[in-house]
Design brief:
The chain has helices at 15-24, 26-36, 38-49, 59-75, 94-109, 122-137, 139-144, 207-210, 213-225, 251-256, 300-318, 392-413, 427-440, 455-467, 479-488, 496-509; strands at residues 83-87, 115-119, 148-156, 159-166, 175-186, 198-202, 239-243, 263-267, 337-339, 348-356, 367-375, 380-388, 419-423, 446-449, 471-474. The protein contains 16 helices and 15 strands.
């Protein structure tokens, strides 16, 4: 195949001559349009990567432009402005655009670029890599870009290298220049010896992995400590993370929680009837049609079916980009009534302090002690929460001091003295720990509680009262963290405050919780 004129050494030609050459060779026009626009390149090669008819929507050129901005800075060796996080529902052309088309487009302009790409599984990552490789091998690509190919002895789905042919003059043998490569792996995989100009992570977790604390921690640790070191130039190489939200502490939540300034976050929920606040930047909400991101791919009927299949939590994360359902998950936290003055002492009926103990100092679960009272009106009030990641010795000291302080406060305020409950974990270790606390609190009214069933089931009676506005909170510096944990429950990173509150409520309500087979 003869090389296109555009691949020959360039000399400055008069504009009218360049116009005549372009008209004589329409392929040059296509090349120039592709060169100027990733979105045009996507439309041009769509039939090579999909058997479906291309469905345009505003979010595709918008994201394509954002990818162009990143690529041009890398090509010029400029320090990155930010890492890019994109949250968008499945089925919105995200993988084809970011993991397939974008990589190939970059090579048509900068054949030397190196990419590291990763997904939640090796199969997922290799599928995108194979599609990218097949695109470069396609007849249409070779017709438009005959100078580009894949190095024959470096041609595997997991790692293939690009080569470029340059011609000194027509009819001569081309000179082969070795270019960049694409190394594909799974999140958690090894990358020894590989570095990227651009690193792309497409769906680092699947929904099943997202509910596992271990899987989430592994994904976040891999991105923090492994992928972050795989950069050709740490000041230049950006991270592009594209995914649907699956959990409060998924990689998106994990990165955003660091509050780093060099992060650009684009969040496009599938609909804004329930998830308008999730749109980021907020001005993009005006581009939605009938409150829908994409009325063709995801009309309301499709979204209704997705909600039926995914459930309210799955729908909220994958479609709404908010890993809690509308209204705040299991708990409608806006129904908490935060007050700045306690009710009169005569209104208090009974009080408890319920402890959910943990023994990890500075990490892991929290020890939490919730003080809750039942009012004569039938409502409940939470007046204090003690919370910390304490060692076993410090934990017992704080429990003892808190119990003493509760007695003094009850006497001064003329409130009922709280009965102390200590959750007893299963096994002999849990029994010994609870018995040790009871001995340490000799002289106080203290009992062990042996809860049955999972945390969500135990929290259900309590959530009903919260959602009906029957739970008051006495304002304090602990209130924000307390409410936020309830907001994300049962997918919150920590569940100890909810668990202790559920225990306190169930003791005050006198409700016997039936054992649930799990």
């Amino acid at each position: 195949m003869e090389p296109l004129t555009d691949t020959l050494p360039r000399t400055r030609k008069p504009k009218n001559q360049r116009m005549r050459e372009a008209l004589q060779n329409p392929l040059l026009i296509t090349r120039r349009l592709n060169d100027q626009s990733l979105y045009h390149f996507l439309k041009c090669f769509w039939p090579e990567v999909s058997t479906d008819v291309f469905q345009p929507n505003w979010h595709i050129p918008y994201l394509a432009y954002e990818l162009e901005v990143i690529a041009y800075r890398v090509a010029r060796g400029l320090p990155k402005l930010y890492d890019l996080i994109i949250n968008i529902p499945p089925g919105t052309t995200k993988t084809k655009l970011v993991s397939i088309i974008f990589v190939a487009w970059c090579w048509t302009k900068w054949y030397w670029m190196k990419f590291i790409t990763a997904g939640y599984s090796a199969a997922l990552s290799l599928e995108a890599a194979e599609a990218c490789r097949d695109l470069i091998r396609s007849d249409k690509f070779r017709l438009l870009y005959p100078e580009l190919g894949i190095k024959e002895d470096k041609d595997t789905k997991s790692n293939f290298k690009v080569v470029k042919k340059t011609y000194a003059s027509p009819g001569h043998e081309p000179r082969i220049q070795y270019g960049g490569n694409r190394f594909s792996t799974s999140v958690g995989g090894t990358m020894t010896g590989f570095h990227g100009h651009i690193n792309i992570v497409d769906d680092p977790l699947n929904p099943t992995q997202a509910i596992s604390d271990t899987e989430r921690e592994n994904a976040n640790h891999w991105m923090d400590h492994t992928l972050s070191t795989r950069k050709i130039d740490k000041s230049v190489t950006p991270l592009i993370l594209i995914m649907q939200r699956l959990h409060q502490d998924d990689p998106t939540g994990h990165i955003l929680a660091k509050k780093k300034k060099n992060i650009k976050h684009i969040c496009l929920p599938g609909e804004i009837r329930n998830y308008r606040e999730q749109v980021h930047p907020q001005e993009l909400a005006r581009r939605y049609v009938g409150e829908l991101l994409d009325p063709v791919r995801m009309p309301w009927k499709v979204l209704e079916d997705m909600e039926a299949d995914l459930g309210q939590y799955g729908y909220a994360g994958q479609v709404g980009q908010d890993p809690t359902p509308p209204g705040g998950g299991m708990f409608k936290v806006d129904h908490f009534n935060v007050i700045n003055a306690l009710p009169a002492p005569v209104n208090f009926w009974e009080s408890v302090r319920y402890w959910d103990k943990a023994g990890s100092e500075g990490k892991g679960a929290y020890t939490v002690g919730v003080k809750m009272s039942r009012l004569k009106s039938g409502k409940f009030i939470i007046t204090d929460v003690k919370r910390g990641q304490w060692s076993s010795e410090e934990r017992e000291r704080i429990i003892h001091e808190t119990t003493q302080a509760d007695r003094i406060e009850a006497k001064n305020l003329m409130h009922p003295e709280p009965t102390v409950w200590v959750e007893q974990e299963p096994g002999s270790g849990g029994k010994e720990s609870a018995e040790g606390t009871i001995r340490m609190l000799a002289g106080f009214s203290v009992r062990a509680d042996r809860p049955t069933g999972d945390k969500v089931f135990r929290a259900d009676p309590y959530s009903v009262q919260v959602n009906n506005g029957n739970v008051l909170i006495y304002n304090g510096d602990w209130v924000h963290a307390f409410i936020e944990e309830h907001r994300f429950f049962p997918f919150s990173t920590y569940k100890d405050q909810v668990d202790a509150s559920s225990g306190a409520f169930n003791k005050l309500a006198g409700k016997r919780i039936a054992r649930r087979v799990t």
